[in-house]
Amino acid sequence: MKKTNLIISLLLLLFLSSCEEVVSVDLKPEAPRLVIEAAINWQKGTDGKQQKIKLSTTTSFFSSQIPTVSDAVVVVKNSNGMAFVFKELSNSGEYVCDHFIPVIGQEYSLSVTLNNTVYTATETLQGVAAIDEVTQTNEGGITRDEVQIKTFFKDPLEQDNYYFFRYTYPENFRQDLSVTDDDLFKGNRFFSLSQKEDLKPGDAVKITHYGVSRKYYNYLQILTSIAGGNSGGPFQSPPTTLRGNIVNTTNKEQYPLGFFSVSETDSRTYIIQ
What we know:
Blueprint: H1 2-19, E1 34-43, E2 51-57, E3 73-78, E4 83-88, E5 94-97, E6 107-114, E7 117-124, E8 131-140, E9 146-154, E10 162-168, E11 175-181, E12 189-196, E13 204-212, H2 214-227, E14 247-248, E15 257-271
Parallel strand pairs: 1-15
Antiparallel strand pairs: 1-2, 2-5, 3-4, 3-6, 4-5, 6-7, 7-14, 8-9, 9-12, 10-11, 10-13, 13-15
């Protein structure tokens, strides 16, 4: 019997060894595409003057670094023709403005000029309902063992509203991202919700509500579904080719990635009890 088992083991090992094969995947490289991260966010209670826009390019699948883009001319104008120039910080691909003026309901236009190519987009600054309460329960989730946080606000009745919610957990380990419209709660008090395991008393959770346009809401719906609701953030380049609202006016086929948005935000830092 022992001899028979030994023969079977040797035959099995020989069979498995003969089946090993190195499979090489041919990933066709694509030309780098410009990525424009242009989320203008105005936190309630601040003047909103400090704003930042980031330029980078897509890179190969195996690259660990994101190439930045320098020497672009980045300008945002409001509907009154006032120009806000974003200047680059030390060849970093980050363009900053320290004199932006946010006005709810005002239209803003983005212009990025790079290598004789012009990219443009237009959005209207959307307001957001103020956060009025944050609550916690320790019996959230299907198994009722997660910490659940609800953040309440009163939706304005006068217009259709679209919301983006972001919950950032300790050390940026995880972000919960979600979007909604107010079709089911127009004019009423409602809440955003997030839940997570392994939180302990004293942990700080950053909660941010954004007022967004319908176009940005549709874009974020797709983006958060791709990311599964948990990602490094919606303002990073998307994991797949997802067209935003920024147009290449010189060559429409060479469109950039990213989205130009203008939002009022309200934030709270909640300490787990």
